[in-house]
Design a protein that fits this description.
It is a single chain. By secondary structure, the protein is α/β, with parallel strands linked by helices. It is elongated. The protein is built from 5 helices and 7 strands. It has a domain of 111 residues: Nucleotidyltransferase, domain 5 (2-Layer Sandwich). The model has no long low-confidence stretch (mean pLDDT 81). It has a 5-stranded mixed beta sheet with strand order 5-4-3-6-7, with helices on both faces. A two-stranded antiparallel ribbon has the order 1-2.
Length: 179
């Protein structure tokens, strides 16, 4: 509470009115501040950890047959280089259809995914969500390269994607191309 104290002047020569001294008790306001801080701490939710779902096939099972027209494979190589092909690796080498790209936002892996999704959507039997995206990091690829490729799959709403170990031929071909 506020209190006023009167001080009387002792000098007889001047006759002034006594000036009240004002003293304000800040205890209730400090209590209210701490109550508000406590309220906001208890009512806020902390950021929850988000994790990516990882589906693994059953051990010992036979892999399902996948149409080659639905598959887009990227080989993650050194120096942030990405090599991509559609269908089988042997066919891509024979027909010289191996593409080289980067992790660039506009013309990198994301553009390859979007182009493949559009081609699948134009077909009558297959749709945009039928794309199967295979990520094959070589020994020269970094962890960041794999995370960037997974991010592109998530950003472009790819429903089926896998991280697969590349074959020996794919590793050798990436080494040859990156030199």
């Amino acid at each position: 509470m506020a209190q006023m104290e009167l001080q009387l002047s002792e000098s007889k020569k001047t006759r002034r009115k006594p000036h009240p001294s004002l003293r304000i008790d800040m205890t209730p306001m400090v209590d209210l501040g701490f109550l508000l801080i406590t309220f906001f701490i208890f009512t806020t939710t902390m950021s929850e950890k988000k994790s990516m779902r990882l589906y693994m096939p059953a051990d010992g099972g036979t892999p399902p047959a996948i149409p080659e027209s639905r598959v887009l494979t990227v080989l993650l190589s050194s120096n942030n280089k990405v090599y991509a092909y559609e269908g089988k690796f042997e066919d891509a080498i024979k027909q010289n259809t191996m593409l080289s790209t980067t992790y660039n936002v506009y013309d990198g892996i994301g553009k390859l995914i979007r182009d493949k999704q559009e081609r699948l959507q134009m077909r009558k039997k297959e749709g945009r969500n039928d794309l199967i995206f295979l990520i094959k990091p070589t020994k020269q690829a970094t962890y960041r390269n794999v995370v960037d490729a997974l991010d592109e799959a998530t950003i472009n709403d790819v429903k089926k994607y896998m991280v697969v170990e590349p074959s020996i031929e794919e590793n050798l071909h990436c080494l040859k191309l990156s030199q």
